[in-house]
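task queued by scheduler; priority normal; single chain, no ligands, no partner chains; default sampling; output format set to structure tokens
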Amino acid sequence: MTVTVVSTGGTIASTPDAGGDASPELTGEDLVSAVPELADVADVDTAEFSNVPSAHFTVEQMGDLARFLAELDGDADVEGIVVTQGTDVLEESAYFVDLCYRGETPVVFTGAMRNPSLPSPDGPANLLASVRTATSERAAGRVLVAFNDRIHAAREVTKTNSMNLDTFRSPEFGPLGVVDESRVTWRRTPESPDPDLDVEYDDLTNDVHAVSVTADMPPEQLAPAREGDALCLAATGAGHVPPTIIPELESVAENGVPIVATTRCPEGRLARDTYGFRGSEQTLQEIGCYYSDLNLQKTRIRAIAGLAAGRLDDVFERPGE
């Protein structure tokens, strides 16, 4: 079986310079050659996509990556794909690909929290676990994240710790499976509510604002969204906002800018009719907000993809209608 490792940069590919500061320099071949055990799992080749820090990765690059992975899927010799990336926005890149990718070749994202120059770097073990995952029959057609021997759905996973190795978790639902030594064990199969999107990559926009609601926040935080393509809003609790920001939200909506609401809580979803006070979920519905069941960063990615497909009404619902 042949697995292609697509390198994009990040901590897993970083080495310290003369001053001791790490930056991405290692190639995919460097990463693969450091894990000789890979040869016991699959025939592994490499493809260089980029070599940038995770925080530098753009929406345009996500689109280019999705297209590149689709090309690899069209190669009959490629039976599995592993993407190595920095962890900062890995969940966003993986979910963007999940929304756009329609191939049968499994795609597994992974990375590292410790660069190769540090004690006990986790990149080699994550790469090995990802290749094992990509060779599993139950991975076919899926976009996954493999990290610290856990396998997650791209839609559900999030980075939960800024430094700990066990940073990628799937709140509320847990991992899909685990990698135990040489064996991949699957525990559940997720139901994905995401529609098939025919994204027009030339229409991708990054002018989608994302704001997390906080206590007594200044309404001016929302003003720039009036001229944007969409506003994603992480409300408190089950969908509540300070009443002082309601006029600004109404102004955004009146400007024709769609508003997508979610909760800032790591688990749970927005309520529909529990509360009726001004600033409750009923207020969001009266304004015409869409509802999302994803975290804020993934809600933004879904809005970007939905706009580029011209199908925002299909990727989110308006419970007030």
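post-processing summary
- The longest strand covers residues 43-52.
- Residues 92 and 298 are 6 Å apart (CA to CA).
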